[in-house]
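Two entries, shown back to back:
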Amino acid sequence: WSSDVCSSDLRDFGEWLKQIRNERGLSLNKVYEQTGITDSRLSKAENGSWNILKLEELKSLASLYEVSIIY
């Protein structure tokens, strides 16, 4: 991400992550079971601190959610 990304963009990304998870009917615990991303880390990401996730974790989420990693 460039330095031009504002905090509202990060919140939007987090909200998008949560929306996709909910649309897939996945709980935080279910995502943990399938990706190894703890519910605490994913919750933080969904609430705007997406940069807490590593690239490999984002790839795992993209695969699980069946979406492109490009946002």
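entry 2 starts here
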Amino acid sequence: LTATAINNSQAIIFLVTGANKAHAVQNVLEGQIDPLLYPAQLIHCTYGRTLWFLDKAAGSMLTKNLDSTNK
């Protein structure tokens, strides 16, 4: 599927686990836009929600609170 097709989904879910993914997660969510290096940067729901589920290890390098849920 292309990024355009994926982005037209009702929901997109990323599930990322492990410390070995922490650097990539940080770059995708907080780094400079470089979709050739991080294609996941192209993925975001046009009409729905994009959800990221990370374990503590995968999110360990994040510096911003990216939780956009209503509490």
